């Protein structure tokens, strides 16, 4: 039996710097893992099956990223069939990377279950083939990610002691559409250095998510959400990924605040 708790991520700053010839875009972003989890269990079984509980995941089982991760491992290493149990908790189309995290966790669990002893570098290579965000979730540590998002350099950034509020406005944003509407532009400053030398209170006017303008144009009411996070005392607030979730970083836990959308609060306790 193998069990894992795939984490979500937030993007702290997200810059789309170039359109590539392969249809993807180069980006530069700090990916930060957050204690918001799905649950994944994999058991040996006579036939492949995927069982999902919790949130409803759109798409056929064969299109699920857990299945794609399993098929990849089967093709590369001839592993036996398994039953995968996924309890879905991280909202989808939120920019929190839940599907990518499930895929990375599937690769890691299969590596363990079948004692394949694949090194991290190989797992990252497989993960990158499943999705641009997936490689980050192999190690789940704060990183500056570049390329398609699959080149991850660990970043000594810790939000230890802060409280994170994630608000999900229940709008599913298509990542591919969001990329199509972006005009690539250089970052213009050293994101890594800036984040490591400034407290979150100083990030507001400098560290931006370049998808925000596009999403706010589609859904102008979301501007209010960001404003509310600041009014509630956030040191820094932003959209994550291509949306639609927004997050706020707080010094103290938030109490007595009413949000019009599903909201989660996390104490950041370790890196
Ligand atoms: C917006 C972010 O969440 C930021 O962390 C990610 O870049 C999204 O990464 P992801 O969901 O793993 O994306 P993928 O599943 O690889 O790609 C979905 C679609 O988004 C577009 N895409 C994605 C990543 C990237 N660097 N450039 C792109 O243009 C492509 O049209 C692609 O077909
Ligand atoms: N295991 C999975 N969990 C969630 N979504 C999955 C999974 N496998 C495939 N998908 C598909 O991926 C879509 C995006 O889900 P995901 O949780 O990755 O959202 P996201 O974080 O907004 O994506 P992105 O990483 O593009 O920002 C879902 O709508 C679903 O159709």
Can you give a write-up of this model?
With 271 residues, this protein is α+β, with helices and mostly antiparallel strands. The protein has two domains: 2-154, Ribosomal Protein S5, domain 2; 163-267, Alpha-Beta Plaits (2-Layer Sandwich). It has eight helices and twelve strands. It has helices at residues 65-77, 98-113, 120-130, 136-139, 175-180, 191-197, 212-218, 222-231, and strands at 2-4, 7-19, 25-37, 39-44, 49-54, 82-88, 143-146, 151-154, 163-167, 236-239, 246-250, 263-267. The protein has a four-stranded mixed beta sheet with strand order 1-4-6-5, covered by helices on one side. Helix 1 (65-77) links the parallel strand 5 and strand 6. The radius of gyration is 18 Å and the shape is globular. The relative contact order is 0.19. The model has no long low-confidence stretch (mean pLDDT 96). Adenosine-5'-triphosphate binds at residues 57-59, 64-66, 88, 92-100, 102, 133, 175, 241-242.
Radius of gyration: 18 Å
Strand content: 25-35%
Helix content: 25-40%
Q: Which residues sit in consecutive blocks of at least 5 with pLDDT less than 50?
A: none
Q: Mean pLDDT, rounded to whole units?
A: 96
Tell me how many strands there are. 12
CATH architecture of the largest domain: 2-Layer Sandwich
Quick take:
This protein has 271 residues and is an alpha+beta fold.
Topology, please?
Blueprint (H helix, E strand, L loop, with lengths): L1 E3 L2 E13 L5 E13 L1 E6 L4 E6 L10 H13 L4 E7 L9 H16 L6 H11 L5 H4 L3 E4 L4 E4 L8 E5 L7 H6 L10 H7 L14 H7 L3 H10 L4 E4 L6 E5 L12 E5 L4
Parallel strand pairs: 5-6
Antiparallel strand pairs: 1-4, 2-3, 3-7, 4-6, 7-8, 9-11, 9-12, 10-11
The structure holds 4-diphosphocytidyl-2-C-methyl-D-erythritol (CDM) and adenosine-5'-triphosphate.
Function: Catalyzes the phosphorylation of the position 2 hydroxy group of 4-diphosphocytidyl-2C-methyl-D-erythritol.
Catalytic activity: 4-CDP-2-C-methyl-D-erythritol + ATP = 4-CDP-2-C-methyl-D-erythritol 2-phosphate + ADP + H(+)
Keywords: ATP-binding, Isoprene biosynthesis, Kinase, Nucleotide-binding, Transferase
């Amino acid at each position: 039996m193998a069990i894992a708790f795939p984490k979500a991520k937030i993007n702290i700053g997200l810059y789309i710097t170039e359109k590539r010839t392969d249809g993807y875009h180069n980006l530069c972003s700090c990916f930060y893992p957050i204690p918001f989890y799905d649950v994944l269990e994999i058991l040996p079984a006579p036939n492949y099956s995927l069982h999902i509980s919790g949130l409803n995941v759109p798409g056929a089982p064969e299109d699920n990223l857990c299945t794609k991760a399993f098929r990849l491992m089967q093709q590369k290493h001839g592993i036996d069939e398994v039953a995968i149990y996924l309890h879905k908790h991280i909202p989808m189309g939120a920019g929190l990377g839940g599907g990518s995290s499930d895929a990375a966790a599937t690769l890691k669990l299969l590596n363990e279950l079948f004692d394949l002893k694949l090194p991290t570098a190989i797992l990252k290579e497989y993960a990158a083939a499943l999705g641009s965000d997936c490689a980050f979730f192999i190690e789940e540590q704060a990183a500056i990610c570049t390329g398609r998002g699959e080149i991850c350099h660990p970043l000594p950034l810790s939000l230890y002691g802060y409280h994170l509020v994630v608000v999900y406005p229940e709008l599913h944003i298509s990542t591919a559409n969001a990329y199509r509407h972006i005009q690539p532009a250089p970052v213009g400053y050293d994101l890594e250095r800036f984040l490591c030398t400034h407290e979150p209170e100083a990030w507001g006017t400098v560290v931006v998510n370049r998808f925000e303008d596009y999403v706010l144009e589609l859904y102008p009411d979301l501007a209010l959400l960001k404003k509310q996070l600041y009014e509630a005392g956030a040191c820094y607030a932003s959209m994550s990924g291509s949306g639609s979730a927004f997050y706020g970083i707080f010094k103290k836990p938030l109490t007595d605040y009413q949000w019009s959308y599903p909201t989660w609060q996390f104490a950041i306790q370790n890196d």
